[in-house]
Amino acid sequence: MNAKIGRLERALDALAPRGRDCDLCPRDCRGDRTLGSSGFCGMGDRAVVAQALLHYGEEPVLSGTEGPPGRGSGTIFFSGCNLRCLFCQNHQISWGHQGKALTDEELAGTMLRLQDEGAFNINLVSPTHLILPILRALRLATERGLAIPLVYNSNGYEKSDVIERLAGVVDVYLPDLKYRSPALALRYSGAGDYFDRASAAISEMYVQQPDLIVDDAGLARRGTIIRHLMLPGGAEDSKAVLDWIAGSLTPSLCLSLMSQYHPCHKAPEEIRRPIAAEEYRDVLDRARELGFENLFLQPEIFGPDDHLVPDFRRPQPFRWK
Ligand code: SF4
Atom 2, ligand 1: which residue's CA is nearest? Predict the structure, then answer.
């Protein structure tokens, strides 16, 4: 038997019972997911998929550099969310649940279709609350020849014991680390324990996949990349996030420092502006002082028409340049 199938089955054996009294994420809703969507994430036992497409806007080790209509990251955007930030740029699907409920067979077929289209990887966006249907679909797809790397693209609000079960299943971890401050996490994401949970989960991800390994084409085969989206006025908290990564993990870890924040959805007044170039430079200076060298950077400023906010009402939600 393919070793990955064995690992998927062991993960499912351990995690599937937890869906009946759901404690799969830090919200600990304790509802029975097989009976429907009673929890914070609003999802039952099926994966709801808003879009599944080749994505050209992720970090180049994931999306490559070909651009459309070339190969890209085989990205599956799941609906619902266990965090639901007030400023979420994907709020149409994270808050709004736009999308189609798929059977495990259909989700497996979606993964295989993306591989057939040339995807460099399968990139699961917001997988946390749908880990059970995802694992079931992965088992089917792997039996049928899915072989490209699996990217776990998460908001970071995870339980570390669930992440432990994904050892040998996930090739590339791509977690956010959004806040160090419990007050900010509570205000913007309703999760005052965000840093405690995310830092523990990311530490486990780092144990499993410490170094970014790329192939001859520069594409990620495995590793961990932490994303940090800077918020307007939040430079001090951003620096505290970087201090923790450098001090508790290592500054050699890959860091994606993101300036693309665009005020969306219910963003309160104090964050209804883009970040300033000086704020980005200030935090980047701290990253360099701390010794981060494996950095993915974005432009210092995004103009009003340059924002990267997708529109999931369109067949192609992204405006590729
Ligand atoms: S996965 Fe959903 S239902 Fe389960 S604990 Fe988290 S938010 Fe609640």
Answer: 41
Residue whose CA is at the smallest distance from ligand 1 atom 4? 22
* Atom of ligand 1 minimally distant from the CA of 19: 4
**How many angstroms separate the CA atoms of 117 and 51, rounded?**
15
The response to whether residue 132 sits with its C-beta less than 6 Å from ligand 1 reads no
Domains, the chain, ranges and CATH?
A: 45-297 (3.20.20.70)
Enter the pTM of the model. Answer: 0.97
Q: What is the pLDDT of residues 21-63, one digit of tens each?
A: 999 999 999 999 999 887 999 999 999 999 999 999 999 999 9
User: What is the CA(78)–ligand 1 centre distance, in A?
Assistant: 14
CB of 39 within 6 A of ligand 1: the answer is yes
CA angle 113, 117, 122 (to 5 degrees): 65
Q: What is the pLDDT of residues 277-286, one digit of tens each?
A: 999 999 999 9
What distance in angstroms lies between residue 162's CA and the mean position of ligand 1's atoms? 12
221 vs 127, 172, 213, CA distance in Å?
19, 7, 6
Residues near 156 by beta carbon (within 8 Å), at least 6 away in sequence: 175, 176, 177, 178, 194, 197, 198, 201, 202
